[in-house]
Amino acid sequence: MSIAASFEIEYLQYLDPEGKLVRNDLPEFARDPKQLVELYKTMSFVRVFDSKAVALQRTGKLGTYASCLGHEAAHVAIGSAMHIDDVFAPMYREYGAQFVRGVKPREVLMYWGGDERGNDFSGPAHDFPWCVPIATQCLHAAGAAMAFKIRKEPRVAVSVVGDGGSSKADFYSAINMAGAQTLPYVSVIVNNQWAISVPRSAQTGAKTLAQKGIAAGLECLQVDGNDLIAMRTAMDYAIKRARHGHGGMVIEAVTYRLSDHTTADDARRYRPDGEVKAAWEREPLKRLRNYLLAQKAWSDKHEEAWKAECERIVDIEVNAYLETKVQPVEAMFDFVYAELPVDLQEQRAQVLALEKR
Amino acid sequence: MSIAASFEIEYLQYLDPEGKLVRNDLPEFARDPKQLVELYKTMSFVRVFDSKAVALQRTGKLGTYASCLGHEAAHVAIGSAMHIDDVFAPMYREYGAQFVRGVKPREVLMYWGGDERGNDFSGPAHDFPWCVPIATQCLHAAGAAMAFKIRKEPRVAVSVVGDGGSSKADFYSAINMAGAQTLPYVSVIVNNQWAISVPRSAQTGAKTLAQKGIAAGLECLQVDGNDLIAMRTAMDYAIKRARHGHGGMVIEAVTYRLSDHTTADDARRYRPDGEVKAAWEREPLKRLRNYLLAQKAWSDKHEEAWKAECERIVDIEVNAYLETKVQPVEAMFDFVYAELPVDLQEQRAQVLALEKR
Amino acid sequence: MAQITLIEALTMAMAHEMARDPSVVVLGEDVGVNGGVFRATAGLSEKFGPVRVLDTPLDETTIAGIAVGMAAQGMKPIAEAQFDGFVYPMVDHIICHAARFRTRTRGRLTCPLVLRVPWGGGIRAPEHHSEANESIFTNVPGLRVVMPSSPSRAYGMLLAAIRDPDPVIFFEPKRIYRQYKEEVADDGEALPLDVCFVLRDGSDVTLVTWGAQVKETLEAADALAKEGISAEVIDVATLKPLDFDTIHESVKKTGRCVIVHEAPRTAGFGAEVAARLAEHAMYDLVAPVERVTGYDTHIPLFRLEMKYLPSVERIVAAAKRTLAAG
Amino acid sequence: MAQITLIEALTMAMAHEMARDPSVVVLGEDVGVNGGVFRATAGLSEKFGPVRVLDTPLDETTIAGIAVGMAAQGMKPIAEAQFDGFVYPMVDHIICHAARFRTRTRGRLTCPLVLRVPWGGGIRAPEHHSEANESIFTNVPGLRVVMPSSPSRAYGMLLAAIRDPDPVIFFEPKRIYRQYKEEVADDGEALPLDVCFVLRDGSDVTLVTWGAQVKETLEAADALAKEGISAEVIDVATLKPLDFDTIHESVKKTGRCVIVHEAPRTAGFGAEVAARLAEHAMYDLVAPVERVTGYDTHIPLFRLEMKYLPSVERIVAAAKRTLAAG
Ligand SMILES: Cc1ncc(C[n+]2csc(CCOP(=O)(O)OP(=O)(O)O)c2C)c(N)n1
Ligand SMILES: Cc1ncc(C[n+]2csc(CCOP(=O)(O)OP(=O)(O)O)c2C)c(N)n1
Ligand SMILES: [Mg+2]
Ligand SMILES: [Mg+2]
């Protein structure tokens, strides 16, 4: 029998769960402790923010909130590898990537606090908003990449989807389009092992999620998503390739959702405690901190001071959020069309009249 | 770097375009000339039927018709490899598979003649009807396979999709489901190089279409779809595997659409003549006939007699079709629900009243 | 007989039919061990096993497509869309296939599936979790579109939907999933589909509604009664096919009609009710028909959503306008 | 000035805007070298190249999703659904995203795409090639739903749709693609959206319709004229947002209204027109509103399809009923 095609999926890891280097070809950015410290500080900030947001929800000051606990390395690597004029298409928990790109914590809170203005990012004005319908953002990113190709702009579009989302039609459609048109599009699957209560094993018979890219003729890579250095290396590679016209790529970031799915979920109903405990051993902050401590680039004192600083900044953001007044009621009419059609004017007037009573 | 997974796509061919054997491990069925002759006769019948149907359309006696010219080996192999109680989910040109399964030529004509009764097959009562919305049939087949699994029936569901259709979301969803649930489902991609005017190269960046199965963790195989022996061997293998609980498979049958897309299409607008000419060199009937002639299992006399017989049978079918009276007008109401809801009774009465005038 | 909520009644109906009929299966995202994000399928996986209570991959196209395939091959799938806003990728298989298999094959293949859709706003949920999108299906021949508004109707109508030989889109007003409890016997008695339920008799004005809005409409009827206005309240319950006769009989009596629904006004299903009145009740009406609906805007995120939903105040005001008019 | 058909007018409008505005691109299946299965995009690929006239992979989800992504990033995509029956896999991206980007981001991102949909029956095509499914979109805030019915309106309305800052679903009545020719100047003059066109003045009865049915409705008006009945004919043209004022003005004059459309009756867009009349024109109407529509069944395959579509005969009969009634 002859062989029509053959493929390999590589797995990339630099830091083991203890923070020990497992390869000796450190990329340039990782040889600069200052850069690594900055990335660590962002990851750590995200975690402080995240626990504060959960607390706000528990005390009735926020709606349903999707925690990013455990995803910090993957998210911060994505955000920091992108240029500011690249386009990011998030799902709903990539705050790490978004903070790096300039989205404000108060905007995250406004969004989950039931206020559309949270999506009016003060950061990258062209980034896509949070995307609730799973995996649809993948096609928006591919569409953005298509726009870049048509306009000959050296920009790259990056989307994030979950392990569950990688089952969805839109995920395949997007990578297929990227392959067919050689688009500057990087599809990152953040595989945190669960889609609400459904384990990754029930989503697909595929051995890796990275290999889904083979269906589209894309280059694919599986990465330790808890290893900031590996994730950033993979993203740098994928984005550079894409920017230089070599087409799209699928990156599977293997990580773990350490929290409930959202604050509306109770993972104890379906998830063994032991699994979560074991996952904490591999979590992303610890290993990078250990590595930096070993490099003497970081210390317990730094840690303490930075935590305090994070709390301070987060408090400012929370207060700004809590002080945001609700939108005027007519706001529900004012962004449906560029100009309010005649047919809607009476309804808008009715709403205003009801409000005034 | 470590390797997380690796894959190979094999290519299967027994007969070269001239009808010479290129391997010496002929499977059992192919060692029996009688069986091969029967299959050849069916392929040949399909071709006679097909050209008659095109002629009917040209003379205004049939609506738009999708020819199967060039696909006969792939289709007949699929139909003949299936058990009668397996379920077939066709697209719209798999007459070869359907005739083997008991669908009558007159039913094909009724369907393309604008009469729903064409889908009320006298053959396998559980087979899916023709399916116009591309690739949706893949999920219906996967659903059938799911039903077999739940009911513990040793049955297999087979769908056919085109090269174009293999870009469609439903195709991926179906193989993903099959992989996740180890379903007895065989997805055959009949890659005839064109989706109306869009060449296979514009559909995907994948080197083979077979490799799409890797995304779902399925076994995949690329086959010379013009080689009846290879196609039937592949189908036997896939169906047996599936029937024995080993899960789904993706088979790419590489062939060529020798006709226009349908009678409503004019392929000269977009397709180079030279390509079609070259494809005729690889067409499926010639090579099997050459092989059978060389085996002395077939002769020019047989050929002539069989062609005449085909014409005779097809004429009977065409006449039966042409004599079929149009359905009574109220038929449009009588299959919308099991029982006509009260709300529709007045409308039905109106239609009847209009008709009587 | 247990006092149960609307959502518990749904669970009870599914458990009843699964025990009675082995061809009934449940499928969707998180319907298994987790028992559904709203707990509608709680306990079913334990009782009937993971093969009949199937956690699907996260793809609504898959859920709809395999439900169609299963139904065509003799199963009775109850598919769940996790929220109203996620039903759109299912629309193709529902409209092109579920609704058409019977007619396409002249009755050879049928598609007796139920698609359960938690529906509507008012639960302070994120975007796409609050849609009143029943209009997507009401123009489609071959479908039934139903929506219960009480525990007992939820039980009886879901049984009927599962037993129905044709596809049923079963909208569940999630805002009233746990609004109140009612005694519902697990007696396997289905309620009829294709009929409206008159929830309250009245003589001055007919209030026509469905789903969660039944709550506000009944409250409005109470408020009107206090002012001496007698309102008849009709729960449409099955939107398609529509039982217009019940509505018409009521309007013959009252001469006035207010239609209340949560979906945006334009081309919402209320338009069909009003259209039937314009066609058939012209000489019965003494006042223009009123519609109290969601606005022709997207339902806002939750800080503003209660300003969007029809309120008791708006319903009362509309009813009074019909009284002032004629 | 050339005499052109409706479909040629569409091609001319696209070519005009592509030449004028480099952000306009065309995408879909077979729109490139083949020029579209109806030839609507004929010549565009030669003129503007395969990057701006993009043959997509065969996946409507892809077409809709990337059109949304492109539009949000400053392009003006004109996406084509090859036939009405293949629009369903696009519905998710259109409803959840195209219609919502502006409101979701408070105006930061917008989605100025056009989705062209060859629409309706009567061309003896296979199943799923003959759907009148405009109702899928008319309840969705944030969308425009338009349908031209003549070469000049096709040209002017498509220009307007492309230039519109919001998403437009552009239904094309394929049965009249080549019905007749008209002089249409390629002057880049858009027609207004959001307004009805009064095609014929009359005083006895108002006939309201859109799309291919404009043909039969005008013929019905001719037939009525022969019997001394003066029918006003209104082409709704933009279904959403609806210009009810023009319809209302006419009904104030005539007191009678017949609504004609090809889609199934129940919850077809005609219901909205009738509902508005029931709300606002109660005192103007002297006869019940009539609807002449497709039946609440699937449009049959072509041997029976002409029995399904509203005929001149049915329209005339309905108009006469309104005259007999009041
Ligand atoms: C189309 C659609 N279906 C269902 C949902 C409900 N839902 C929200 S998150 C989620 C699970 C997502 O899992 P995964 O993709 O693995 O991402 P994760 O949340 O684990 O990061 C589901 C089913 C949705 N938002 N969109
Ligand atoms: C969902 C959908 N989109 C578009 C079409 C129109 N259409 C019919 S056949 C076809 C091309 C199919 O190509 P392929 O899948 O390669 O199958 P082939 O016809 O070549 O056998 C298209 C675009 C359709 N039937 N369904
Ligand atoms: Mg996950
Ligand atoms: Mg093909």
From TrEMBL, chains A, B:
Its EC number is 1.2.4.1. InterPro entries: Alpha-ketoacid_DH_E1_comp (IPR050771), DH_E1 (IPR001017), PdhA/BkdA (IPR017596), THDP-binding (IPR029061). Keywords: Oxidoreductase, Pyruvate, Thiamine pyrophosphate. It catalyses: N(6)-[(R)-lipoyl]-L-lysyl-[protein] + pyruvate + H(+) = N(6)-[(R)-S(8)-acetyldihydrolipoyl]-L-lysyl-[protein] + CO2. The keyword Transcription regulation does not apply. Pfam families: E1_dh. Its cofactor is thiamine diphosphate. Residues 40-320 form the Dehydrogenase E1 component domain. It is an enzyme of class 1 (oxidoreductase). Heterodimer of an alpha and a beta chain. The pyruvate dehydrogenase complex catalyzes the overall conversion of pyruvate to acetyl-CoA and CO(2). It contains multiple copies of three enzymatic components: pyruvate dehydrogenase (E1), dihydrolipoamide acetyltransferase (E2) and lipoamide dehydrogenase (E3). This is Pyruvate dehydrogenase E1 component subunit alpha. It comes from Tahibacter harae. The gene is pdhA.
From TrEMBL, chains C, D:
Its cofactor is thiamine diphosphate. Residues 4-179 form the Transketolase-like pyrimidine-binding domain. The keyword Oxidoreductase applies. Pfam families: Transket_pyr, Transketolase_C. Keywords: Oxidoreductase, Thiamine pyrophosphate. SUPFAM superfamilies: Thiamin diphosphate-binding fold (THDP-binding), TK C-terminal domain-like. Signal peptide: none annotated. Its EC number is 1.2.4.4. It is an enzyme of class 1 (oxidoreductase). The keyword Hydrolase does not apply. SMART domains: Transket_pyr. InterPro entries: THDP-binding, Transketo_C/PFOR_II, Transketolase-like_Pyr-bd, Transketolase_C. PANTHER family: 2-OXOISOVALERATE DEHYDROGENASE SUBUNIT BETA, MITOCHONDRIAL, 2-OXOISOVALERATE DEHYDROGENASE SUBUNIT BETA-RELATED. This is 3-methyl-2-oxobutanoate dehydrogenase (2-methylpropanoyl-transferring).
